[in-house]
Amino acid sequence: MKFTAGQIAGILEGEVHGNPEIAVHKLAKIEEGEEGSLTFLANPKYTSFIYTTNASITIVNKSFVPEQILKTTLIKVEDAYKSFSKLLEYYNQVKNNKVGIEEPVFKSDTATFGTDVYLGAFSYLGNNVSLGDNVKVYPNVYIGDNVKIGDNVTIFAGAKVYSETIIGDNCVVHSGVVLGADGFGFTPNDKGEFAKVPQTGNVILEDNVDVGAGTTIDRATLGSTILRKGVKLDNQIQIAHNVEIGEHTVIAAQTGIAGSTKIGKHCMIGGQVGIVGHIVIGDFVKIQAQSGIGRNVKSHEVLQGSPALNYGDYNKSYVHFKNLSKIINRIDTLEKKD
Fold first, then answer.
1. More exposed terminus of the chain, fewer Cβ within 10 Å: N or C?
2. Which residues touch 266 (CB under 8 Å, ≥6 apart)?
3. Beta strand segments in 55-175, E
4. 22-79: pLDDT as tens digits
5. Residue 190 resides in a domain
6. Same domain for 167 and 187?
7. Identified catalytic residue from 17, 174, 241, 248
8. CATH number at residue 173
9. Which of 196, 214, 242 is the last residue of a domain?
10. How does the record describe its quaternary structure (predicted)?
11. Considering the entire predicted model, what is its pTM?
12. How many Å apart are CA 16 and CA 11, to the nearest integer?
């Protein structure tokens, strides 16, 4: 797939400085640019590479003024980083714009879908499944009974969507994701054994939710496990039954959230964070990586540590943590003098 500088400038509303007919067919870092590749310059510390790059086209800010002769054709835009990101999104849309039904596919007679749908080989659609327009279901995806999926949704290879799950518009579900497996619900009986508590709820992803590879989101015991609009999850995250995550919250890899916890909107949660069940975390909360959260958290708090402390208190305390052995030795010395 090839694009000329003129075509790219049209997509980005930019200006071509150089040859508008020069074409590219791949993307590259500026320091690794080759003939036929497209790159960008946004960070000033990489400026020296623009004079040595062999990339055919480079996207730059309008403010950029070359100090040496360039081999590369420039496309000048208001914000090179944002424009390059927009181009990556456009590239992915074109690359992933699959349409049609491959064979073999199993789809129930009661399954319905809109226009421009793609069903990859060995995918499965159960009873009463509903797919919107422009839904892309890659090979080996399982979609259980009564699942409803909105428009412009992509479900990558090997994902499993259990029955009753609801997925809104513009969502992305990556490979290995499991939506709607049973929550971890067991109760001890008179014999000291653990009996399963039936998990009868579902999972709801609202619009514009991204779920990273290998992430698991459990169905509710009753009601719904809900990810509100704009939530972004990294890879290998565990979301337990009846959890609710507020709008535009982002969570990094290997975080685990126990059952029935409510997380507010616009939160930022680092990797390997552990959050206990049945607590409430407010809005705009920031939690540093590897923290352990065992209490309710007020809006706008910034936390670190396990159990987590206020971020500022943690940093002050850490000065003493790392000198703890010296402090103990000093106390021992003083006690001996007494």
1. C
2. 246, 247, 248, 249, 283, 284
3. 57-61, 73-77, 100-101, 106-107, 112-113, 118-119, 124-125, 130-131, 136-137, 142-143, 148-149, 154-155, 160-161, 166-167, 172-173
4. 999 999 999 999 999 999 999 999 999 999 999 999 999 999 999 999 999 999 999 9
5. yes
6. yes
7. 241
8. 2.160.10.10
9. 242
10. Homotrimer.
11. 0.82
12. 12
Measured distance CA(101)–CA(238) in Å, rounded: 32
Shared domain check, 180 and 138:
yes
Residue 193 sits in which domain range?
100-242
- Has 300 been annotated as catalytic? no
Could you tell me if residue 295 is inside a domain? no
| Rounded Cα distance, 286 and 93, in Å | 32
Q: At 65, which CATH number?
A: 3.40.1390.10
13, part of any domain? yes
The number of beta carbons lying within 10 Å of the beta carbon of residue 35 is: 11
Instruction: Report whether 15 contacts 60 (CB < 8 A).
Output: no
Do 165 and 180 touch, CB atoms closer than 8 A? Answer: yes
Distance CA 96, CA 274 (A): 35
Amino acid identity, position 19:
N
Q: Which two tokens stand for residue 15?
A: 């200006």
